Amino acid sequence: MPEARVLFHRLGLGQMAGDLVSLRVLIVSGAVQDRDTLRQGAGAVSVPIDILEAGTAKVGAGLLAAGDVDIVFIDSRIEAAERGMLLGVIRALKPPPFVFFLVTDSSEAAALTEAKADGIVAKPTAREGAKRLLERCGVLRLPRRVLVVDDSATMRSIVRKILTGSRFQLEVSDAEEGVDALKQVRAAKFDLVMLDYNMPGLNGIETLSEIKRESPEVAVVMITSTPDEELTRKARGAGAAALLKKPFYPSDIDAVLHSVFGLGAAARG
Distance (Å, rounded) from C-alpha 198 to C-alpha 182? Predict the structure, then answer.
């Protein structure tokens, strides 16, 4: 078997086929069996998957440089120095792909605590397990609609800029107060609403409660500059998925996006 090869599966329509055009996945593992299992899983997924295989980190780095990759799986048994080199290549890409380490047991996972990745997943040993893992990864690349609600135009602009730079595929809209937000949620399907608490008219809790009453499937993140136990209790009680404290940074929003759209959320779904 060649050290690196490309296999393309044009598959039939499935649950995600209408939204996801294709998924490009790189598997970096020296074990032929690991690569074969994931390739077989790709053949059972109902969306087009472009599988790239690399037997070494060096070959994987070359494949990353050659074209767009959405997801990278790295075998945890690859030497730490080689993993570090590969992660450096990945982080230099704009935007970088999602990265997951494949492990066989908890001891391998414990050895990866210093490595910066989007997650650690159990290595599938059969086609069905690989199929489920790749389906979850496919959800990461689905287009999502996000509504940013804040009476400050400056804050809306900041949040919009961070969201549009995310690795998630996001279409961002905004509203300057609760009534407008409710109108937009009623008129179009949103996956996430980022909602300021302190607004004129309807405040954040009132807007949150109405959104969850009418559209319970929409995730809502409350943004506030003065979080306290009572506000946290009210927000959680009204259905907030998370609270975000001002001032925040891109990494804070990235963490929120992973909690709502990430691999763990896909598994729960």
Answer: 16
Positive or negative torsion for Cα 229, 183, 149, 257: positive
The DSSP bridge pattern shows strands 71-75 and 98-103 to be parallel
Token pair for residue 106?
């908890």
Question: Residue 206: pLDDT band by 50, 70, 90 thresholds?
Answer: very high
How many angstroms separate the CA atoms of 26 and 220, rounded? 33
Domains contained in the chain, CATH given: 4-140 (3.40.50.2300), 144-268 (3.40.50.2300)
CB neighbourhood size of 236 (10 A): 13
The amino acid present at 259, given as its one-letter code, is S
In whole angstroms, what is the distance from residue 27 CA to residue 39 CA?
9
- Mean pLDDT of all residues in 192-208: 94
Task: State how beta strands 242-245 and 23-28 pair.
Answer: unpaired
Burial class (CB in 10 A: 0-12, 13-18, 19+), 129: middle
Measured distance CA(53)–CA(250) in Å, rounded: 32
Distance CA 149, CA 143 (A): 20
**Average pLDDT, rounded, for the chain:** 87
262 pLDDT band, cuts 50/70/90, is confident
Cβ-contact 255, 110 below 8 angstroms: no
Q: Which two tokens stand for residue 125?
A: 């040993």
Query: What is the predicted pLDDT for the residue at 105?
Result: 86
Please state the φ and ψ torsions of residue 220, each to the nearest 5 degrees. Answer: -125, 130
Cα R_g (the chain), whole angstroms: 20
- pLDDT bucket at 118, cuts 50 / 70 / 90: confident
